[in-house]
Structure formats: C-alpha cells, structure tokens
Amino acid sequence: MGRPVVLAEDETHLDWLARVRACWIPHGIRHLVPTPGSSQRSSLLGAINPAIGAWHYHLAHKCVSSSLRKTSWSP
User: Fold this and answer.
1) What global pTM score does this model have?
2) In three state form, how does the secondary structure of the chain look?
3) Distance separating alpha carbons of residues 10 and 20, to the nearest angstrom
4) Which residues make beta-bridge pairs with 56?
5) d(CA 40, CA 16)
6) Which has the closest alpha carbon to 45: 64, 21, 17?
7) pLDDT > 70 in the chain, percent
8) What's the confidence (pLDDT) of residue 33?
9) How many whole angstroms separate alpha carbon 64 and alpha carbon 23?
10) What is the rounded (10 degree) CA torsion for 55, 62, 15, 33?
11) CA 9 to CA 35: how far, in whole Å?
12) pLDDT at position 54
C-alpha cells in the first residue's frame, strides 16, 4: 500500500444558457433575453496535489456520484 495523498479540490458548474437576473429598465420597455436552445449543464471538477504541484481535472456532463467514482485523480 502506498503513502496517502492529500488533494485540494473544487468544482464549478457551467451552464449553456445565461441565468436571467433582475435588472433595472425603464417602465414600459421589455428586456430581450436571447436563448440559443435548451439548457445544458456541465460540471468541471479539479484537484491539486499541493506537495508536488500536480493538478488534475474532470469534465462531467452530469455531476453525480457515479461519474465521480470513475474519475482517477492519480498522476
């Protein structure tokens, strides 16, 4: 059995469609929000080994535990 490895990890979600937020607009004018189609989401997971500076990433189309189990963080 090898030595344990400590990784610092983070994740972010990338949405194809922009999120519609509240904004100030003159009364009576409609704000046009163009949408290119259906909403799609991908998740980007990353980890860095602070001891040696090696970093690893995984782009998942669904961020569920089954896709995380398939991720290999080894160098």
Assistant:
1) 0.55
2) CCCCCCCEEEEEEEECCCCCCCCCCCCCCCCCCCCCCCCCEEEEEEEEECCCCEEEEEEECCCCHHHHHCCCCCC
3) 25
4) 47
5) 5
6) 64
7) 73
8) 72
9) 33
10) 170
11) 32
12) 92
Partnered with residue 9 across adjacent β-strands are 47
Residue 58 burial (CB count, 10 A): 17
- Return the structure tokens found at 7: 């990784």
The stretches in the chain having pLDDT less than 50 are: 74-75
Tokens 């983070």 sit on residue: 10
Report the candidate in 23, 21, 17, 19 with the shortest Cα–Cα distance to residue 35.
17
| pLDDT at position 43 | 86
Which two three-digit tokens encode residue 75?
A: 């160098």
Residue 59 corresponds to which tokens in the numbers above? 């782009």
How many angstroms separate the CA atoms of 51 and 64, rounded?
28
